[in-house]
Amino acid sequence: MALSYLLNQLRRLRRDERGAMAVMMGILAIPLVGFMAVGFEISNWYMLTRSMQNAADAAAVAAALNGGDTYVVEAQDVAARYGFVDGQNNVTVTVTNSAPCAPNPNLPAGAVCYSVAISGYTPLLMAQVVGYQGNANINGALQKQLAASAMATPGTQAAPLCLMALGTIQAQDIRTNGSPTANLNGCNTLSNTAAQCNGHNLGAGTSFAVGANNGCGVQQVKIAQPALDPYAYLAVNNASVLGAAGLSASHCNGNYPQETGKNNKISGGYNPSTPTWNVSAGNNFICGDLRLTGDTTITPPVGQSAVIIIENGQLDLGGHMLTNAVTTDANGNATGVTIVFSGDNSGSYTHAPTDNSNGAAGTLNISAPTSGSWSGVAIYQDPNLTSGLDVYAAGNSPSWLITGIIYMPHASITLKGAIDKSQSGHRCVVLVTDNVLIDGTGGIAKTDMGECAQAGVTEPVATTPSGAQLIL
Questions:
Q1: In percent, how much of the chain has pLDDT > 90?
Q2: What's the pLDDT score for residue 415?
Q3: How far is residue 427's CA from residue 425's CA, in Å, rounded to a whole number?
Q4: CA separation (Å) from 347 to 229, 290, 343?
Q5: How many Å apart are CA 282 and CA 239, to the nearest integer?
Q6: Neighbours of 66 (CB within 10 A)
Q7: Which of the pair, 9 or 356, is modelled with greater confidence?
Q8: How many CB atoms within 10 Å of residue 6?
Q9: Cα(357)–Cα(349) distance, rounded to whole angstroms?
Q10: Which helix (H) or strand (E) holds 75?
């Protein structure tokens, strides 16, 4: 009886499945809790990596914005604000300004970037339950290494220049000589060496210089390396005008008549007709000195521009005004004039505008062509010339009323008066020279970027930092 009852109860127990799920859940609870713990640990890794990435992004941008000698300190300070201090708690913050940039359509090939890499470790917790051993062992504890990196490049903006000193002669390219009234009307300047303005900022906007920059401009910006000559290429592009190595002797057969004497008793050289000097469109060659005998208007064909190439000679205004007629054809093309000084470095030739009168100072009043190969260029000294280039008392004797580019790359120029726009031209004057001394009321007329475009002028520019861009 007892045995039969026991067997019946065992059969019932075998058939009864109540509580089986609880047993299974009890068995599965351990690995389930383990996997959940591992999931939380992996989420923590992600959160730490995300925080690292934010720190790397901010630090890379800070380094690019800094752009100076302290960019490493700047980046590491920013990373520290996110809790990642270089050298503490096994954290490393590596900063460089010479990392090859990641491919980016907005960057030139071979560009380099500011790069920040942050790495650190976090100890393993439950991940060991599933057999993960990490990738480091620090002081006997298994660790997971986490890392993040970012690249940034400094943004730039172009600042147009109205005065650019290329600097191959003087230790200071832009200088003043006690000029409390000199005014550059807010234009930007650039010196490939140093700039020294005594007691007055010249009314310049931003003054860029490679070396020391004392007192010039409302804002002084140091540039890392000298700027390139922006207009030397025109001599190559116009080699048919200037000839090999800047010579055009084939047009003069080696004959360059020079002026003799002074004070209206000058003979020699070429005297254009007055008051109207009719010239052909394109190139007009003058051999030796050119001297005015009266007020003269250069008159090209209607709507066309002329180039006056003076070979081994000066332009002597002789106390008179040289201007150019401005006419427009049916298609809206306007006349303009470029005066080119060419020749060679033999003899004692002068390759520049002068005024040898003993009376009232002459006036150079011209506007550059607005199109063509000499677009925007009013005066051009062949960059192969190295002597007879300097101008003393420019803007005063003679007066300069010029719209366009005045390119005298190896000249030393003393500005004693204001260079203003031509009477019939747009408000755009750009002076590119080797060095300049600004004296008394010397200055350059206010340049309007919109009017420079209308005048056909492509201004030289300096680049300034402006924000930063994350690349990676």
A1: 46
A2: 87
A3: 7
A4: 27, 17, 11
A5: 14
A6: 20
A7: 356
A8: 10
A9: 19
A10: helix 71-81
pLDDT band at 208 (very low <50, low <70, confident <90, very high): very high
Mean pLDDT lowest for which of 226-235, 316-325, 330-339?
Answer: 330-339
pLDDT at 417: 82
In sequence order, what are the residues at sequence separation of 6 or more whose Cβ sits closer than 8 angstroms to the Cβ of residue 364?
A: 315, 317, 321, 322, 353, 398, 399, 400, 401, 402
3-state helix, strand, coil in the chain (%, to 5): 20, 35, 45
| Residue 254, pLDDT score | 82
CA distance 172 to 191: 8
Q: Which residue has the higher pLDDT, 313 or 449?
A: 313
| Cβ-based neighbours of 30, under 8 Å, separated by 6 or more | none
What is the spatial distance between Cα 462 and Cα 163, in angstroms, rounded to a whole number? 11
User: Is the predicted pLDDT of residue 66 greater than 60, yes or no?
Assistant: yes
**Looking at residue 248, what is its pLDDT?**
46
Identity of the residue numbered 105: P
Tokens of 331: 């298609």
Helix (H), strand (E) counts: the chain: 6, 27
Q: Which two tokens stand for residue 404?
A: 């366009």
Amino acid 21: pLDDT: 59
The rounded distance, in Å, linking the Cα atoms of 213 and 211 is 6
Identity (one letter) of the amino acid at 431?
Answer: L
Burial of 215 (0-12, 13-18, 19+ CB in 10 A): middle
Place of tokens 């000294």: 381
CA distance 292 to 318: 6
Q: Are residues 242 and 382 in contact, defined by beta-carbon separation less than 8 angstroms?
A: yes
Task: Specify the amino acid at residue 354.
Answer: T
Residue 44 — φ and ψ, nearest 5°?
-65, -40
